[in-house]
Specification:
This protein is of the alpha/beta class and 282 residues long. It is built from 7 helices and 12 strands. It has a 9-stranded mixed beta sheet.
């Protein structure tokens, strides 16, 4: 076995003060390691609460569940809790919440000495109104019904849908295949990526200032959309390719028409944008 050097052994035997200091140093070292271990594994330093600023459509319970689910999903092993306030990855948490809520931006803050995480959420600006066979409802980015529109709001939506008023906001989607009434908190029978595609489309139309009446998805497969422009002309979009390129093409056509360019005819029945870079009119 390893023996301490002779000099140390001799001092250890001969010098009680050295012996005392040696033992105290060892105890301090063990104590430090012990306290360090306790701090790292202690429940005192785990995140307990979540506060949210902005994101008025995100319920506090959902915010807390989202934060804990994201932190607990840590894949690599560590001796400390995934919720430990010293060691959690703020940027990874912010990125994961941004995707989950389809937010424009999420920032994660924690005050020193606090067990509470503060989220600053900037939601997408585009509101989404869905017209089913029965109702007019406001829907969030996950396809969950936020509320039913009141009479005044419904009137404004009907004016947009019939071309009596112009605009791009909110995004209006007609889903006649949804027959049953929807309660608040109920999810539309539509995949989340499709809902987010409507919101993205609303953002594009607003960006290019292309006023429209509403978007119709006539079959539950959602393979194509029909966008009705300000004059009630049907515009066919293909959902399997990027909507951005199709809206750019539409914008180029609308601008050319406004400039009364030679050979650019007006559409009387429909505009078909489903062939990349082309516009077919009837």
């Amino acid at each position: 076995s390893m023996q301490p050097p002779l000099r140390v052994r001799h001092r250890f035997n001969a010098d009680p003060e050295f012996r005392r200091r040696f033992v105290l140093t060892l105890l301090a070292l063990f104590s430090l390691v012990g306290w360090g271990g306790l701090l790292i594994t202690s429940d005192v330093l785990v995140i307990r609460g979540v506060e949210i600023e902005g994101g008025e459509h995100i319920h506090p319970t959902e915010a807390k569940a989202a934060v804990f689910q994201s932190l607990d999903a840590r894949t690599e092993w560590r001796p400390w809790s995934p919720r430990h306030r010293w060691f959690f990855d703020r940027e990874a948490l912010a990125a994961s919440l941004k995707i989950r809520w389809f937010a424009e931006d999420v920032q994660v803050e924690r005050k020193p000495g606090s067990n509470i995480v503060r989220l600053i959420v900037k939601e997408q600006r585009v509101g989404l109104v869905v017209r089913t066979a029965e109702q007019y409802v406001e829907v969030d980015a996950n396809g969950v019904v936020r509320r039913e529109l009141d009479n005044e709001e419904r009137l404004r939506i009907v004016q947009r849908m019939t071309g009596k008023s112009a605009g791009t906001m909110p995004m209006i989607v007609e889903l006649p295949f949804i027959q049953e009434p929807l309660a608040v908190g109920y999810r539309l029978g539509v995949n989340v990526p499709d809902v987010r595609r409507w919101i993205a489309l609303g953002g594009l139309l607003d960006q290019y200032q292309l006023s429209f009446r509403y978007l119709a998805a006539n079959d539950a497969l959602l393979a194509t959309y029909t966008l009705y422009d300000q004059n009630g002309i049907a515009i066919y979009l293909d959902t399997s390719t990027t909507l951005e390129s199709q809206i750019k093409t539409l914008d180029a056509y609308v601008k050319a028409r406004a400039q009364k360019r030679k050979g650019i005819e007006a559409a009387r029945e429909f505009i078909d944008l489903r062939i990349p870079g082309r516009v077919y009119l009837k």
